[in-house]
Amino acid sequence: MNKISISLNLNGEDRVIDVFPNRRVVDLLREDFKLTSVKEGCSEGECGACTVIFNGDAVTTCCMLAGQADQSTIITLEGLAKNGELDVLQQCFLDEGAVQCGYCTPGMILTAKALLMKNSSPTEEEIKVGMSGNLCRCTGYEKIHAAVKNAVEIYKQKLEQGGESIG
Amino acid sequence: MAKEYSVIGKSKVKVDGLEKVLGTTKFASDYSLPDMLYGRVFRSTVPHATVKKLYLEKARALDGVEAVLDYHDIPGKNRFGIIIKDEPCLVDDKIRRYGDALAVVAAKSPEILEEALALIEVDYDEIEPIFTFERALEADAPIIHGTTNIHQVKHLECGNVDEAFKKCDIIIENVYSTHRLSHMFIEPDAGIAYYDDDGLMTVVASTQNPHYDRNEVASLLGLPYNQVRVIQAATGGAFGGKLDISVQCHCALLTYHTRKPVKMVRSRSESTMVSAKRHPMTIEAKTGATRDGMLMAMEVKICSDTGAYASYGPAVITRAMVHCTGPYSIPNVRADATFVYTNNPMSGAFRGFGVPQVAVCHEGQMNALARKIGMDPVEIRIRNAHQIGSKLTTGQILENSVGFIETLEKAREKAAEVLS
């Protein structure tokens, strides 16, 4: 098997890497780029732990091959905090106690981020549907839902004050 | 006036919350060390058999494979288990469940590892597998451990049950069945073993039970306890399912032979296949009461399948029995429980240790009784609820902190509020 060359924008930086075409994106991120916030839970796209933001969408990287990442833009949880300052979603997860064991947390936060990047004022129902691909086995859904709702409000206030947008 | 506390009643940020929202928390599979090998287990694909021959030569000859081990390579004791030591690290006498560990392999890369596992073959002499409680007890059934398939039998009795039933106005009899459940913790079991700078065998693992793990690794390798160290990595959920040994002993054995760090990360299917499950139970219950809803007597028979290995079975059988009346005072109680070994996945600890299973039964009985008498289901519970001074089936007197009646009353108020 010959390696293929992959170019991508990863957490704001342009990166090039040679990998075998059968490498999954979750391994590319965890093993090759050492971005271990990306977690593997089920390996079949069910649990959402390996979610990243891929070209603006929340996707499960355990079901993607490296070739699909060529020419893409990927954001992992490592790329969310800017200059040591937590993203609004990270702060809301922390404040609301929406974190228990922490294994589903990266995927949860990134799924919420992708949702808000597309729809800055989702309804309760839209949040529930948007987050439905991510499983939390400690059953902290109430708090996770509350954290996302709080983040929506804070983003709104920031926008009204002429501050940064969600994306 | 309500008391002011520094923590109680206040919203506090979790001490490990920041690392978790940043994604920098290290779980077992996030550890990497120089010269690290990747380890995996070769498992049985039949539930009950002896091993005629295990073919390890081809895997051993593969370039990049550093160890292929079977039970002959265990320097210490090849048995572990939290209460009863009945589970082998690597099968020696016979296979007792689908997925029993036959060999472990360490290789330089996950790809070589996969190739090596595909080169291992095994010949079995199959034995009739036992999948039901009933079959396990039949005289001609094959024996899974020792001389009987009965894992444990327990009896608990107080008062005079037979006399009390004669005086009851109403008797309710039902059979309840609960099924086997998997914890499905979101982080599959994982760990890494290595010799630290002082030469200590060290295992970092996703576990609930590092002290127990340390003892099992030491016993497996024939080392004194002070030569083994187990560190709990951040653990991605467990719910009782990470109290048993998972990868700790297999990793440590590979490190013992290769002297190199060895990491093992179970796939979801492997984790689900061999981790403990909630005990499935069949509970026959007979409850007697007076016309005005006072409980007089209860008789319970609990049958359960602890699977191929005991795990926490001995704890679950006791807890299920002593909790079989639920939070209700019943003066005359007889409980009998039988747990058997089968070739099913092992049953062990799972939130509540058997108590949730019997709760299905005692609450079902209370509802059935309330219906039969025509009494409000909350009222019948309050009438029989434990309170300070209540005597349990075991003879224990509850001396303080019994909040059941208060809780029921508050719940009733709340429900009325919501429903009005």
From TrEMBL, chain A:
Residues 4-80 form the 2Fe-2S ferredoxin-type domain. Keywords: 2Fe-2S, Iron, Iron-sulfur, Metal-binding, Oxidoreductase. The keyword Chaperone does not apply. Pfam families: Fer2, Fer2_2. InterPro entries: 2Fe-2S-bd, 2Fe-2S-bd_dom_sf, 2Fe-2S_ferredoxin-like_sf, 2Fe-2S_ferredoxin-type, 2Fe2S_fd_BS, Beta-grasp_dom_sf, Diverse_Oxidoreductases. Gene3D superfamilies: 3.10.20.30, [2Fe-2S]-binding domain. The keyword Cell division does not apply. GO terms for molecular function: 2 iron, 2 sulfur cluster binding; metal ion binding; oxidoreductase activity. PANTHER family: OXIDOREDUCTASE WITH IRON-SULFUR SUBUNIT, XANTHINE DEHYDROGENASE IRON-SULFUR-BINDING SUBUNIT XDHC-RELATED. This is (2Fe-2S)-binding protein. It comes from Acetobacterium bakii.
